[in-house]
Amino acid sequence: MTNPQYLVRPHDSHIFELDESNQCYRSFSAPVEYPDGTRPNAQSHFTLDNLTSNYDFFQIKKSELKKYEEKHNFHLGYVLWSTRPDGHGGIKGGTMKEYLEKIK
How many Cβ atoms are within 10 Å of 12's Cβ, its own excluded? Predict the structure, then answer.
């Protein structure tokens, strides 16, 4: 059986893709590239079994990439908004409800 090409981290919809050189997973949503355009190999502990059994990652199809990229960007937008500085060394914070009202 071959490993699925894409996995999603459930809490923030971050997408990981299969590194076929070692059958482990690396970030698809925020890829790391060297100056020559190559990418580092995936970390050896990012295996299908480890990510799905211990961290609840789940498989998606290529046709679902856009949907999960949008979900990830929405989550990232909320995190960035809720951790914006308050001007006094802290953060302003905010609820999801407040964020949804802000972006309307």
Answer: 15
Average pLDDT over residues 61-77: 97
Residue 36 tokens read as: 């020559």
Identity of residue 84: R
Distance (Å, whole) CA 90 – CA 84? 8
pTM, two decimal places: 0.83
Q: Are 31 and 39 in contact (CB under 8 A)?
A: yes
Instruction: Outline where the chain has alpha helix (H).
Output: 48-54, 65-82, 96-103
List Cα–Cα distances, 39 to 18, 32, 63, 66, 82, in angstroms.
Answer: 12, 6, 23, 22, 32
Q: How far apart are CA 64 and CA 37, in angstroms?
A: 26
Q: Angle at Cα 61 formed by Cα 55 and Cα 67, nearest 5°?
A: 85
